[in-house]
Structures
1.
Amino acid sequence: MDIAQHIHELQKSLPKGVTLVAVSKFHPVEALQEAYDAGQRVFGESRAQELTAKQKVLPKDIEWHFIGSLQTNKVKDIAPFISLIHSVDSLRLLNEIEKQAAKNERIIKVLLEIHVAEEETKHGFSLTDCHKMIKQLPDLPHVKICGIMGMATFTDDNVQVQKEFHQLSELFKELKQTAFRDSKDFSILSMGMSHDYKLAIQEGSNMIRVGTYIFGNREY
Ligand SMILES: *Cc1c(COP(=O)(O)O)cnc(C)c1O
């Protein structure tokens, strides 16, 4: 099956209200163009340099999402055009996004990345640190916190995966009713990848990030 077919199949099968982010990291612009021609407009990348290079040559109505770990010194490169940063994992990064958004006279939308998986290597706030950080949030006029993002442990154990997605979902609901009660923007729960997006949707995800299923394996 080709890229266009995978996009069409996914789009057809997704419940209403679930946004598909096509994760195109490590794939050539030709592959992205193929997805674009199949109607896909939202793309996710995980490295600033690769993202800016692709953004320059691909159609201007693409909505670019940043999903990887973001170094503060790279924020300035993506600030002029980025639609959503999924991977905010420190107050320091938030402050830098505020600064660069202001410079570009933009408001940048972000998600807080939450760590629930068992792997040590995954980034993100712990549940405790997330609450702590939110309590001491400074005024950020050029940043909109639109929700949370998380990953489940990479395992065949569906019970475990479901449990972790459930944790994220509960946190999302809780924040929506408390700290972000007055925010219309706090509405995105980004969870689910190629191998676990169905479970994620069952647990309430409304934004999935799918790479391998659409584009095939990545070459590193
Ligand atoms: C690479 C990546 C994805 C996509 O993973 P697939 O298994 O290829 O669907 C989703 N989210 C994040 C944060 C990623 O880094």
2.
Amino acid sequence: MIWDDEFSAEIESWDHAGLRRRPSVLASAAGRTCALDGRDVLMFGSNNYLGLAGDSRVRDAAMTATCQLGVGSSGSRLLSGNHALNEELEREIAAFKGAEAALVFASGYAANLGAIPALVGRGDLVVSDELNHASIIDGCRLSRAEVRVYPHGDARAAGELLSGERHKYRRAMVITDGVFSVDGDVAPLPGLCAVAESHDAVVYVDDAHGVGVLGHGGRGTASHLGVSGRPSLIEMGTLSKALGSLGGYVAGSRALIEVLTHQARSFVFSHGLPPGVLNSARCALRILRDEPDVVETLADRSARLRAGLGDAGLRVSPGDTPIVPVHVGDAGGATRLAGMCLDAGLYAPAIRPPTVPAGTSRVRLSVMATHTVADIHLAVKIISASAAKLGMIRTFAPGSP
Ligand SMILES: *Cc1c(COP(=O)(O)O)cnc(C)c1O
């Protein structure tokens, strides 16, 4: 291909900078253990927080729907691709979230890319957290609204931006991840709702890592922080993480959902999800609704991991989520630590620049509700022994591995 020389040069530069990505290959169902790159690993690096991606009931739901209804949706949802399962899933999402209605998109990424430009455009203001997910950033760019970025998690700064700029614009929207994927910290939604409401603005929360994880029965970050149902709040989420399937959604008022149905281009100009995916998402949501204890189990395992790593002398951030970063500092150290863990059978990825600022590289562990207490102990043992060998633990707590 005539651009191959250019491409090769670019790829070589990534190699030099240590930024070349080579995706690991998964050859098993997603579970607490996985076959990754030809070896069995204890999985502490997935978004499969409730283990539902490999759950036999969810698999059966996919299989039944696929056998009865076929594979593809065969059309955009506004034409012939709106299978009844979409409507059922949307009703169930709305009921779960306590909203009037919901709309399902092909993915979480597609939901943000479609919903944000459907809600704001030229002449509107978006006030955005500096660590928001790429799909939010891309949705904002596509919207052509004016974007102002506030320092991470700083509701007061968001308020100051609104105070200074709100009057120049038609609509204003504060936008944030509910749970931030890099550190597992939680957005200050009560503060953001308060400043938004005092400036006639809305808050759009992307709860990709919050639904199924935080709040009453896994109802998400807004529920966790006591702001669900606030009229200023628009809740978006994904079916692909804790719910183990695929798809994104927005839940809210009937009028909001009607506007998105007409205006969200990623909804209008893309096929509906296949029946197997829709039915597996429905099944996962029902499991979450009927067995809310899994959310408590997840919180218990996450707390055990945080405590265990802390006791072993590692630097972990406090928090309520299953995302547990072990802070290393330099990128090489994080890569070596993750590599040693992998050699010992524990998969937990190194997170390095450009994902995080230089000097703040870490190994990030994500906990699953299906991890046993023994799995947690083993993970602590492997990572603390590896960190000790690399000279990353200065003070050894007595009794640690
Ligand atoms: C993962 C993620 C998405 C994308 O969701 P997909 O369903 O994987 O497309 C969007 N927003 C945030 C905050 C995410 O973490």
